[in-house]
Design goal:
CATH class of the largest domain: Alpha Beta
Strand order of the largest sheet: 2-4-3-1-5-6-7
Number of helices: 10
CATH topology of the largest domain: YojJ-like (1
Strand content: 5-15%
Shape: elongated
Number of domains: 2
Number of strands: 7
Length: 277
């Protein structure tokens, strides 16, 4: 009986059903990628286990278990929303960063010049073993973190950036946030990552860099106070032991991608506005 229903269901599948299954599978796969390395992954496994128990009990006709799971469905959904709140927020933020909402990484014509200034400052911070965490804002707004620090709103220069992270500076603790070619705030507090995949030897700066990159699309540069090692965090991934050339290539690649996207959009816009002969 069950096998006959299964075969009839398979035979009744059409092209739209295949597309539907593919889209759902892709969404589930993306969700698992977003949850990877977080405590939410363990909860996902638990949710699949409960779903498996429900399907198995339904197949065997275990009425008591089915009744209990059905009654608890609403409560479980509410609990999952509360527990998954950070991950759901991160997911919605990433969806909001689509190409339709993209804009230039660095504002105006300061892209390459801004990168060069940052590179000079990071090189000095690394050589002098000044601990630093530098946040480059992209599309996601960072107002809540800017408000936690000290407002500066000064022109970005290597001298100012290095002086802020001087060990004797009152602002050297916390993160420095850059918008375009300006230093907006310093001594800002960032969220710490709770990922279990992070090396236990890493300190608060690196965890904060990863934590912010998990919740926003910002690029975060870190120099170690103990070793002077340069690291960069993006999309929840920390890349360590970068030299000046590697870091510069990575930042230039990010900037050039944004320039290409912007150029394509402008080309399309001007083509549409060209008068017809």
């Amino acid at each position: 009986m069950f096998l006959s229903k299964l075969f009839s269901s398979i035979l009744s599948i059409n092209f739209l059903d295949i597309i539907d299954i593919f889209i759902v599978s892709f969404v589930i796969y993306q969700l698992l990628l977003w949850f990877k390395g977080t405590r939410a992954l363990q909860l996902v496994k638990g949710a699949f286990l409960v779903l498996g128990i429900y399907l198995f009990s339904n197949f065997l006709g275990l009425q008591t278990i089915n009744w209990l799971l059905q009654k608890l469905t609403t409560i479980i959904l509410i609990v999952l929303i509360i527990v998954f709140q950070p991950e759901l927020r991160r997911m919605l933020e990433r969806l909001g960063r689509g190409k339709l909402m993209s804009k230039l990484f660095f504002t105006g014509n300061h892209g390459t010049g801004t990168i060069q200034v940052i590179m000079r400052a990071v090189e000095q911070l690394s050589e002098q073993k000044y601990g630093s965490i530098i946040v480059l804002e992209r599309e996601s707004g960072l107002e809540e973190y800017i408000e936690s620090g000290v407002s500066i709103d000064g022109k970005l220069t290597p001298e100012l950036l290095v002086s802020i992270f001087n060990k004797h500076s009152l602002l050297h603790d916390g993160a420095l946030i850059i918008q375009g070619n300006r230093i907006i705030a310093a001594s800002c507090l960032l969220p710490l990552s709770d990922s279990r995949l992070i090396d236990t030897k890493l300190g608060t700066r690196h965890r904060a860099a990863i934590g912010l990159s998990e919740q926003a699309d910002a690029v975060v540069i870190v120099t170690s106070e103990e070793t002077g090692v340069i690291s960069i965090a993006e999309n929840g991934v920390l890349t360590r032991y970068l030299n000046k050339q590697n870091l510069e290539k990575k930042l230039l690649a990010i900037y050039q991608d944004k320039v290409k996207e912007s150029s394509i959009s402008l080309d399309k816009l001007f083509k549409k506005q060209e008068p017809k002969d």
